[in-house]
């Protein structure tokens, strides 16, 4: 589907899409570099995988309608923060905050908004860390700050969100209370699993430190 924009806005929209495509490339490169650096320094990579997308025209139009706005390029750029979106799937909850701070600390990244649904989950149980950032895109004669939404979550959080999205979609947002309760219960189990996995990982790290320390000591003596 094409966005039903005014005919004279087509060229502007194509230029805007080029910016969104560019910002996804920029953020993906940044993440790849961070992951490689982490792998080299700590012998493990915090990022399991990354997906990115440009929001579908239907979804952009829906969001603009929900905000009671006219469908213009100006309104999309100003009010739809997640036209460009990247989702980072991490191993452990602690990785989420490490990655978020490594991104925020970069000089060319401006953090516009943070929604920490891990510290404060949504009432339905949804957890994830969301950031809206802007990154400058260098064109021939212009530098244009372009927004991208970054969602960071663990494998378990992603598992829940993907399935909840499918189930909820089937009910067109009007899932019966019983289903909602069961989904919430699953979210609690997911959160327990994440905590458990993190704690196992911490124990393994201590075990390694002790073991390596022990080896070093015994080779010293
Ligand atoms: P899609 O298809 O993922 O793009 P805003 O207009 O930015 O102020 P918004 O969009 O509600 O407000 O922002 P928020 O809260 O940061 O959440 C936006 C995105 O987070 C959603 O995008 C989903 O991807 C995800 N999300 C938020 N809540 C839920 C939830 O309860 N369940 C699931 N599965 N995902 C959620 P979109 O635009 O809905 O869809």
Automatic annotation (TrEMBL):
This is GTP pyrophosphokinase family protein. InterPro entries: GTP_Pyrophosphokinase (IPR052366), NT_sf (IPR043519), RelA_SpoT (IPR007685). Pathway: Purine metabolism; ppGpp biosynthesis; ppGpp from GTP: step 1/2. It comes from the Bacteria. The lineage of its organism: Bacteria, Bacillati, Bacillota, Clostridia, Lachnospirales. Residues 52-175 form the RelA/SpoT domain. Pfam families: RelA_SpoT.
């Amino acid at each position: 589907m094409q966005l039903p924009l005014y005919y004279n806005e087509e060229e502007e929209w194509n230029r805007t899409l080029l910016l969104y495509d560019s910002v996804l490339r920029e953020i993906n490169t940044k993440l790849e570099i961070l992951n490689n650096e982490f792998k080299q320094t700590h012998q493990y990579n915090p990022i399991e995988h990354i997906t990115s997308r440009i929001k579908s025209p239907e979804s952009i139009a829906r969001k603009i309608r929900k905000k009671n706005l006219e469908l213009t390029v100006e309104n999309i750029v100003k009010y739809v923060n997640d036209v460009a979106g990247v989702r980072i799937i991490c191993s452990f909850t602690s990785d989420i905050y490490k990655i978020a701070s490594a991104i925020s600390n970069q000089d060319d990244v401006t953090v516009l908004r943070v929604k920490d649904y891990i510290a404060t989950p949504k009432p339905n149980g949804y957890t994830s860390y969301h950031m809206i950032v802007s990154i400058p895109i260098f064109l021939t004669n212009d530098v244009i700050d372009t927004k991208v939404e970054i969602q960071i979550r663990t494998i378990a959080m992603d598992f829940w969100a993907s399935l909840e999205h499918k189930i909820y979609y089937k009910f067109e947002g009007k899932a019966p209370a019983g289903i909602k309760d069961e989904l919430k219960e699953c979210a609690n189990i997911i959160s327990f699993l994440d905590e458990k996995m993190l704690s196992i990982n911490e124990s393994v790290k201590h075990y390694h430190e002790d073991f390596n320390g022990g080896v070093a000591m015994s080779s010293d003596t």
